[in-house]
Design goal:
Radius of gyration of chain A: 20 Å
Structural class of chain A: alpha/beta
Cofactor (chains A, B): Mn(2+); Mg(2+)
Distance between the termini of chain A: 18 Å
Pfam families (chains A, B): Iso_dh
Bound molecules: 3-isopropylmalic acid
GO molecular function (chains A, B): 3-isopropylmalate dehydrogenase activity; magnesium ion binding; NAD binding
Keywords (chains A, B): Amino-acid biosynthesis, Branched-chain amino acid biosynthesis, Cytoplasm, Leucine biosynthesis, Magnesium, Manganese, Metal-binding, NAD, Oxidoreductase
Oligomer: homodimer
Subunit structure (chains A, B): Homodimer.
Number of strands of chain A: 12
CATH class of the largest domain in chain A: Alpha Beta
Chain lengths: 349, 349
């Protein structure tokens, strides 16, 4: 019996609904494969602000530190978006958690599912077979650099150390080695000093991975190439802000952001969350796609080295997709609810 | 007789070829409408480094300051890309020129031509009718902020003053007023202090433009929305780096980056250049699309307040497109050369 502690942070908007389905699937896995998963729930984001005044309460951080892995729904509430300068905002909870847990690498697979190509804004022949793994640095850059204001100006500092670049680069190289052997570093080395450091460090590390071919692409060109020819990519490595932009952009390839999972890993624990946000307009309507959360749970199983279990979840998702057991954005004619999709996948596992 | 001085900076790669066609069109306009355009050519970029050691020779800057407008081809040579840390690089010429001429606003129209929809990687029904005008701040942000290195780290500073935001915001609001009345500010106000200043300033200026609706979009979401639904945008306003990324990304909408012009305006003079780069692989083959350079020349005419002339050029381009008098990337079966396309447009004006 494998015993693991999982903290669930349902968060805001559709977060709780999709988390519930992911937990349902994890429970089905535990039962079928005879593991013992202990779940504990905690507050993060707008819901945490509402009940404690803090976007990342101390209890939540303690629970995450206690856990073997964290499953997150989504955070964010439009009422805070009106005033991005407000002292307390949901995003601070997520950013604070990433920093506190040392989650320095955000990993996002982007897959074009053949039966869903019609839902993509891109032409099917451009995207069929696309399969990209994005490594986004998550605890450095202008997200966490010194920033400030005086009466006439504002500034943000983007900082990177060799050490910060090195640790995520090794992860990305290893991933490329186990995939198609191509790593693309995306930067703006013709303008940014930090980008030049990224290139330098990646060039050095490349020597240790002779089987991996390394490509360098400026971020403006990468934003274009992702749409023009997504199949040219295997593993993409990039800094925090460029990764934020490119991974959201890449989400259009698959046809629905509701399909895309992510993992954030670091020194101690790891966090798994769907790429989509809290999507407050859909809250409580049963129309949110739980697949991104469920595939995030599959990444969590992989992290526990439960390969077979992770594969079972992915196969079940594939079955839901090919059987058209999908929520309304992917199945207009006979849509299933969030719960129905989750239950189907849990039973199929 | 309107007399104007135009400095031409052919630059590198395909720059000289496309510039030649744009000048041909400007000469045809001068003849037909009885204006007197004086052309003077100067060095910028890799070609300038080769013959003077400097990417932006003093003579070139002096010529640009003397001119009423500048027409630029493209700069950049792959031999400098291998080493982005090299002391002298072609990009420095362009960045230095922008700064020296105070070209604080880069304006890029993105249009989906109906007869060319098939060439876009996006589905025709998503892009038909898309018509976006991007205002990218061009002399601030992390491009020109303090940057540096020590043995273990590198940093770039993104700085914006109220003044820098204010002057480009007015241009963008005026453009929105004369178009469809929607301005979208793209920022990352949930993370960046500079973005919060952008929001604050734009919110204040908005009061002066009651007919313009203002929308705020985070840059990650904008990167997604540009592909999901480009028709939702009218005028986009954003800072330097986000503008670099988003405007290149948006270039895929039209089906060919070879169609997209840009204008960079400032206090004194203005510079016009195609969005595409120096594309060295195509150099000297007669396959480069001159339309982006020619449409840049049309923007130059507009800047001289020669509305009718600018329209004549645009109509001639439209005629070339609808008659399929196009270079190979848009006309595989019976491609025309760079020169043939330019000559057709010059004769049609
Ligand atoms: C909510 C926001 C701060 C966050 C980010 O920019 O990292 C989000 O966009 C993401 O990608 O997880
Ligand atoms: C060449 C490079 C420095 C430049 C930029 O980033 O501004 C280019 O990409 C552009 O958009 O004109």
């Amino acid at each position: 019996v494998l015993a693991k502690k999982i903290v669930v942070l349902p968060g805001d908007g559709i977060g709780p609904e999709v988390c519930q389905e992911a937990v349902k699937v994890l429970q089905a896995v535990a039962e079928k494969y005879n593991h013992s998963f202990t779940f504990r729930s905690a507050l993060l984001g707008a819901c945490a602000i509402e009940s404690t005044g803090q976007p990342l309460p101390e209890d939540t951080l303690a629970a995450c530190e206690w856990a073997d892995a964290v499953l997150l729904g989504a955070i964010g509430d439009p009422k805070y978006d009106q005033d991005p300068a407000a002292k307390v905002r949901p995003e601070q909870g997520l950013l604070g958690l990433r920093k506190a847990l040392g989650l320095y690498a955000n990993i996002r697979p982007v897959t074009a599912y053949d039966t869903l190509l019609e839902h993509s804004p891109l032409k099917p022949e451009r995207i069929s077979g696309a399969d990209i793994l994005i490594y986004r640095e998550l605890t450095g850059g202008s997200y966490f650099g010194e920033k400030g204001r005086d009466s006439s100006l504002a500034y943000d500092t983007c900082t990177y150390t060799r050490e910060e670049i090195t640790r995520i680069a090794h992860l990305a190289f290893k991933a490329a080695e186990s995939r198609h052997g191509l790593l693309t570093l995306v930067d703006k080395a013709n303008v940014m000093e930090t980008s030049r450091l990224w290139r330098e460090v990646v060039q050095q590390i490349a020597i240790e991975y002779p089987k991996v071919e390394v490509d360098y692409l400026y971020v403006d060109n990468a934003a274009m190439q992702l749409i023009l020819n997504p199949r040219q990519f295997d593993v993409i490595l990039t800094e925090n802000m460029f990764g934020d932009i490119l991974s959201d952009e890449a989400s259009v390839i698959g046809g629905s952001i509701g399909l895309l999972p992510s993992a954030s890993v670091g020194a101690h624990t790891a966090l798994f969350e769907p790429v989509h946000g809290s999507y407050p307009q859909a809250k409580g309507k049963g129309i949110a796609n739980p697949i991104a959360a469920i595939l995030s749970a599959a990444m969590l199983l992989e992290y526990f080295e439960l390969k077979e279990e992770a594969k079972a979840v992915r196969d079940a998702v594939q079955k839901a997709i090919s059987s058209n057991i999908l929520t309304q954005e992917l199945n207009q004619t006979s849509p299933y609810t969030t719960e129905q999709v989750g239950t189907f996948i849990a039973y199929t596992v």
